[in-house]
Specification:
By secondary structure, the chain is mainly alpha-helical. It has a single domain (about 1-175, about 190-375), classed as Up-down Bundle (Growth Hormone, Chain: A). The protein has helices spanning about 5-20, 20-35, 40-45, 55-75, 80-115, 120-150, 155-170, 170-175, 190-215, 215-220, 225-230, 240-265, 265-285, 295-320, 325-335, 345-350, 355-375.
C-alpha cells in the first residue's frame, strides 16, 4: 500500500495528469465513497455466513487484478492521453476501493473472532509495526522510481509492484484458521426488518460517528499537502518519496504509542490523543511556507501518525461496541454514517480554487481540535490489564 499511497503517490499522479485541485479532491471523495457505500449491503448478506474468509480472499484478488490492469494501461497509453488516463484511474481505483467494502466487513468479523478484546490494540498496532521495515523499504523504492523512471511509466511500475505485493500478502489469510461462528444472527429476509438492527447500531455508534466527522477534516487536507508542496513550495518530484517516507515513519512510531494506549486505557483516550496530534499537522503545514518544502516533513510525520491512529482507534472502538453476532452490521453502519467525511476532500479542492491553502488548513485544524474535545463523550471501555 505504501507504493500507491492515495495522499502522496496517487495525489501527485492525478495532479500531474490534470493540474487541478478539484480533481485531486474529487478522486479522494470517489474512493472514500466507493469504499464505504457497499459495506452495509454486504454486511446484511455476509453476517449469517459461518465463515467469512472466502469472501475476503475474493475481495483481495479483485484488488490485485485492478492494480495490475491499471499498471498495464498506464504503460500502454503513456502521457499521450492524460484525460483518458485520469478517467481510467478513477474507474480502476473505484473498483479497488469498492471491493474493499466487501473485504472490510469480512475482515472485521474474522479479527473479532481470532483476537481477544483486550489485545486489539496490540494486534492493530502490532501489525503496523511488523510491516514497518517493508513499508519503509517501499517508500524508499517509490522515491527512487519516481526520481529515475520516466513519467508516467514510473507510476505504472509502482502500481504493478503493488499488485504483486498484495498477491503475496493474501497468503496470510490462507494461513488463518477462522473458527466457524456459532453465534450467528438469523438471516433477515426483509430490509424493513433489518432496519431495526441498523437503527440500534446507529444509536450506539452515534458519538463515535460525530468524532469521526469532526476529525475527518484531517483527511480533507491530507491529499493537498503534496499539491501544496509542488504548487507553492517548489518541491521537486523526488520530494514525494521523502514525504511518503515521513508519513510512513510517523505511522510506524505512532502505531507503537496508539497500540499501548488502546490496550492500557481503551480507545477513548487513545482517540483523543490522536486527534490532538492530527490537529497539529495542518498548522505545521502553514508554517512550512517560510521554511521551504523540507519544513513540510514534520506535518507528514504527524499526519502519518494520526492516519494510523484513526485505523487502530476506530477499528478497536467499533469492535468494543459491537456485539459478537453483529460485527458485520456495526462495521457497515459505521462506514455509512461516517460517509460525509468522504466529501470533505472534494470540498477542499473546490475551496482551494477560491481560498488560500493557509485558510483551508487552519479551518481543518479547528474542526479536528473540536473533535479532540468531543472525545470525552465516547463510550468508555474497561480494558483488561
Amino acid at each position: 500500500m505504501a507504493l500507491t499511497q492515495p495522499t502522496t503517490v496517487i495525489a501527485a499522479f492525478i495532479a500531474d495528469l490534470t493540474g487541478s485541485t478539484v480533481w485531486v479532491g474529487g478522486l479522494s471523495t470517489v474512493l472514500a465513497v466507493a469504499a464505504a457505500l457497499p459495506q452495509l449491503f454486504v454486511a446484511r448478506w455476509i453476517e449469517p455466513r459461518p465463515r467469512k474468509t472466502p469472501y475476503l480472499l475474493i475481495a483481495i484478488y479483485v484488488r490485485v487484478a485492478s492494480w495490475l490492469a491499471l499498471a498495464m494501461l498506464i504503460y500502454r497509453i503513456g502521457d499521450s492521453k492524460p484525460e483518458a488516463l485520469a478517467w481510467s484511474l478513477v474507474g480502476f481505483l473505484g473498483l479497488f476501493f469498492a471491493v474493499g467494502g466487501l473485504g472490510s466487513v469480512a475482515y472485521a468479523d474474522i479479527i473479532g473472532k481470532v483476537i481477544s478484546p483486550n489485545r486489539l490494540g496490540a494486534f492493530f498496532g502490532g501489525k503496523e509495526v511488523v510491516a514497518a521495515p517493508l513499508t519503509i523499504g517501499a517508500a524508499l523504492l517509490a522515491r527512487k522510481v519516481l526520481a529515475e523512471v520516466p513519467y508516467p511509466r514510473s507510476y505504472a511500475l509502482l502500481f504493478g509492484l503493488a499488485s504483486l505485493a498484495l498477491a503475496i500478502a493474501s497468503i496470510g489469510f490462507w494461513l488463518i484458521r477462522e473458527p466457524v461462528d456459532t453465534r450467528l444472527s438469523p438471516r433477515v429476509s426483509k430490509w424493513r426488518d433489518y432496519g431495526a438492527q441498523v437503527l440500534q447500531a446507529s444509536r450506539q455508534l452515534g458519538p463515535l460517528v460525530v468524532f469521526q466527522l469532526l476529525t475527518g477534516f484531517s483527511l480533507m487536507v491530507l491529499p493537498f499537502y503534496v499539491v501544496f508542496a509542488r504548487d507553492r513550495l517548489g518541491a521537486p518530484i523526488e520530494a514525494i518519496g521523502w514525504f511518503l517516507l515521513a508519513q510512513v515513519g510517523g505511522g510506524l512510531l505512532g502505531s507503537l504509542v496508539w497500540a499501548r494506549l488502546v490496550d492500557r486505557a481503551g480507545s477513548r483516550l487513545m482517540l483523543a490523543c490522536c486527534a490532538g496530534t492530527s490537529a497539529a499537522a495542518p498548522v505545521l503545514a502553514v508554517f512550512s511556507q517560510w521554511t521551504g518544502w523540507p519544513g513540510l516533513l514534520p506535518a507528514f510525520f504527524l499526519a502519518g501518525a494520526a492516519f494510523n491512529g484513526r485505523k487502530i482507534g476506530f477499528s478497536a472502538a467499533v469492535l468494543e461496541i459491537a456485539p459478537a453476532s453483529g460485527r458485520p452490521t456495526y462495521t457497515g453502519v459505521n462506514a455509512l454514517l461516517a460517509l460525509p467525511v468522504a466529501f470533505l476532500p472534494a470540498l477542499a479542492g473546490t475551496l482551494l480554487t477560491r481560498w488560500s491553502y493557509d485558510t483551508v488548513f487552519l479551518i481543518a485544524a479547528g474542526f479536528i481540535a473540536a473533535g479532540a474535545f468531543w472525545a470525552r463523550r465516547l463510550p468508555a471501555a474497561e480494558p483488561e490489564r
